[in-house]
Amino acid sequence: MSPAPPHQPVRADGIDARHRLLFAGLALFAEHGFEKTSVRALAKAAQVNLGAISYYFGDKEGLYRSLFTDPSICGVPEDLVAFAEPGRPMAEAMRMFYVDFLAPLKRGDEVRMVMKLHFREMAEPTGAWAGAVDTEIRPQFEALLRLLVRELGLKRADLDLHRLALSIAGLGVHFFAFHDGVQTLSPSVLATPRAIDTLAERLAGYAVSMVEGERARRAAGRTED
Predict the structure, then answer these.
(1) Which of 4, 30, 35, 194 has a CA between 20 and 30 Å from the CA of residue 97?
(2) 77-215: what CATH class?
(3) CA dihedral in degrees (173, 179, 184, 188; nearest 10)?
(4) Three-class SS of residue 10?
(5) Beta carbons of 69 and 132 less than 8 angstroms apart
(6) What are the C-alpha distances in Å from 45 to residues 14, 27, 158, 206?
(7) Cβ neighbours around 62 below 10 Å, total
(8) Close Cβ partners of 52 (under 8 Å, ≥ 6 residues apart)
(9) Which helix or strand (DSSP H or E) is residue 13 part of?
(10) How far apart are the C-alpha atoms of 195 and 176, rounded to whole Å?
(11) Which residues of the chain form CATH 1.10.10.60?
(12) pTM over 0.85
């Protein structure tokens, strides 16, 4: 017999209290910031008692940090580096990279709150974003560098490879950071889950072209650290 799953207390009406706290926190922290959001306001918005915050997250800071790492909010894939497995063709690796990267865009308006929270954290830093960089963004970036080193037959990742990796990631970041602008200029690009999957396919193709451009540049002997 398999062991029973860990106990996850829920409210009497069956709604997961932890889940409700996360989404209440996302809305309130994005709107008011960490300092101006009270524990009482969080509990009221989530319709839980005050003790639920300490039970699930330790304290208000723990809840806030979770908004940058919890998969139900940030949409981080279970395996951040699967796209870079040795032997995977470059086109397929880039497709996997962007499918995972763009998946949170399928959540619609929730993405706006996540981006608002991230921009507020940049303006009023608490350190939560730095933790997410170390645990999620850095591993994915380093995996992308390893993939590019293999693909281009290099011994190490030089500065030009860092430029390329940041640019590849930047193609996807644009659709989050400029989400409202994309919705204004070309709403059909993000209109449906299928449209977002198509975008992932296109970005993968653009990224492969960038890699081929870098390959040609290096073959011509043009490098600069």
Answers:
(1) 30
(2) mainly alpha
(3) 70
(4) strand
(5) yes
(6) 17, 9, 49, 43
(7) 12
(8) 17, 18, 21, 43, 46
(9) none
(10) 15
(11) 17-66
(12) no
Radius of gyration in angstroms for the set of CA atoms belonging to the chain, rounded to a whole number: 20
Distance of CA 23 to the CA centre of its chain: 16
Within the chain, which residue ranges are assigned CATH 1.10.357.10? 77-215
The secondary structure of residue 84, as a DSSP letter, is G
Residue by residue, pLDDT tens for the chain (225 residues) are 333 333 444 444 434 899 999 999 999 999 999 999 999 999 999 999 999 999 999 999 999 999 988 877 876 666 778 999 999 999 999 999 999 999 989 988 888 888 889 888 888 888 888 877 888 889 999 999 999 999 999 999 999 999 999 999 999 999 988 988 999 999 999 999 999 999 999 999 999 999 999 999 999 986 665
